[in-house]
User: Fold these one by one.
Assistant:
Number 1:
Amino acid sequence: MHDKNDNKYITVFINMPTKIKDNESIQPLLNLLEFGKISFSVLDKIPFIYKVSPKIKSLKKQFIEIQNQSSILTLPDQFNELFSNEGWICYGALNQSILEESVSLGLDNKIEEAKLLLINSIDEIFIDLVLKKCGIRKHFKLRVELLKLLKIDYLEERYHACIPLLLALIDGLANDISAHIGFFAEKSDLELFDSITAHKTGLPFLKILMNSARKNTTTEKIKIPYRNGILHGRDLNFANKEVASKCWWALASLIEWADEKALNKQPKPPESFQTILKQHQQTRELSKRIGLWKPRPIQPKDYWIVQTLETVVDDSPEFTLLEFLNHWKNKHWGKLPPLLIHNIGKHLGKASQEIKSDYQKSELLNFKIIALEDYTASSTRILTNIQYIKNEGIKDTEINITLNYADSTTGSPELRGEKNGRWYVLQLSLGDILFS
């Protein structure tokens, strides 16, 4: 028996683009660039038109600005073309400088230099970020303690220990997230609509590569984390940094896949040229407002001693933080989810259960703001003293808590004060208290 939604599902995947740049979220901008290129090449042959209509000249200027920034749209495809056969794929959170530099080296035929760059990018900072992401995500947080041990093994070059367990954890995570179908299972379908990470040239391709049949026992050094060869004891010379780094890379990609899978993106009607241009104009106007923004003056320490919910401005990040901490202290679990950015769009009841599970292990006793810094036009960091009980011990620590001003329906960053936005706590900044 087929589910009534099967036809819709099939339609979406039949139309999957062959290139990442053809994704629904990217293609309209490329169409605009192509349309503009043709249109302005015609107008350039009759230059007096710009004098007759200054507005057209302004449109050309906007077009050139977009065009100058458009090269980044092709980088994910170039990355996968250069490195996917080597066991690296482009994923949504890939550091932009790493992406740009590796592609640049690859296009310059400096493949070995590019590979070394990618291997060495998997360092302690990279792994710590992965651990923090895992600590606030369902299924992933169950495995954090094991991942911490694997971090030690990796940094101390015990690759024989960390590689098999990383492969096992990746398989188990995919199993939990996708209704009992493991990452390496033949039936696993990792491709998602409008995704960089889960494009068929990305994580789905990596799964096929890592799941290659390895029928013969060999002592030849391998560079790909072949799951079957390693776990079934046929690839005996697997314990090296390159294979281990690619396992961490696959785990980072799996985090992105899990996040995107939860969003369940579906195709949208194509946008018109006028709509795209209007959106760009709105972006330009927002950029101007951001350019005019200035952080608030830093207040002296004694200023914060007397500040409470009653004295701070109610649409400020410090108000949201004090409200959040008060609810945590009073164990008002149902009032915490709407103040956390990662809960935007989540079912309140389900989110409240997750919050209670995470936060009740750290009983908040007292708190006070020590200092505040408006870090960007949409984020503020607040140095806060937190006193709490955990594992039957009283702890007293200072921690920087980040708050983001974001769209209340999408979670996208907004310039502070813009309509449809509000302040949210970034739970990731509380990871050392909640998940250590």
Number 2:
Amino acid sequence: MGLVDWLNSMAEFGEWAGGRKPVTKKSDALRFGVLGAAKIAPLALIIPARSHAEIIVVAVAARDKTKAEAYAKRWDVPIVHDSYEALINNPSIDCIYNPLPNGLHYKWTLAALKAGKHVLLEKPSVSNAEEARSLFHHQILGAPNAPVLVEASHYRFHPAWHFFLAQFEKHDIEKASARAGVPKGGIPATDIRFEYDLAGGAAMDLGHYTLSALRGVFGTEPTEVTSATPRLIHAPHDQRCDQAMEATYTFSNGGTGYISADLGARGGYWFPWLTSNWPNFRDLLAWISVTLHPEDLGVESGLQKSSQKVLIFSGFMSPHAYHRIDITTTITLRDPTSGNIVKQEKKTEHKTAYKWTEGMGGEERGQDWWTSYRYQLEEFVNRVKGREGSGAWVDGEESIRQMEATDRTYEKAGMSIRPTSTELE
């Protein structure tokens, strides 16, 4: 069983174990079509849609119709179309979910928008910044009653992410680090994630989350990519694709950032001569740490007193499955002459946020069993229906800046940015 298959089975079990029965659909529910028989679609759309009264998943299309028919039967999708074009042009469909390989995102998203469909677009939005600017600045999105387009960077819709950001001031950040990894063997080298022509690579996959999170905590763009070190997928596979990427960045407040994204994490144990090729599980639960600048608290009993906070958000990528926000405050007393530490005390708070509460600047929203994908669907429907939501969103400019930062990372690594669609407008 592959990683996504396992996640899907866990999602199904979670629905059953939690007693989350399908709700009665409203007469004006949005009708979704799915492009491709993607393994992520049940987790990202089909299962969470069961609990949303205003979403019905009605159709699927894949290049292999037999595969699409089996997929539709498996997930109770009533309509199977012969092609992506047929699904997009079905007048009874309101919205398109696009989880196709990265290199196909631009073409089919633009086709859906031109057909008047709202689009939930899987991350990363497109292959590179040129495509992102073309897509998100397209005239069709500036027209009256324009369709809704959003990049499905789902963790940004979960209340835990916003609760985490509210725990510190962005300009106070000294350094931040975001890490995510899949143990070696979890994703085969033959996976489409490692096909350059389909915009593959670790920086386009897990790297989307780590770079997005890093940019999110600083609230601004890096002024410089100071280093970028790829580990290429091994031969004979496509050497233009990174299996792992590490990179460091400088931000305008002087703070530094680091990311690690690894689709084949290994080693890191004692006796490296023996264990260097063993699967590493350290970053399977993606995490981000933020260290704030020390705060001067003056003098106490002749000693210089300071305070410094370190915040660690474990499980930021899928906070619905598990997460914890640890806030450690260190109080330090130093000898003013020598600078030596005389006394140091640490205190750690543990926090979680599984739904929006009144204390987070708005009304209570959501359920503690909702996944980040379910929260994402809630806001997508709110946008389409013209309703006020939680405020969580990923706008077009954010998606453009994300791809710009990704391109700069590849360039610093001495690699080619992912290829541009021949149908670029």
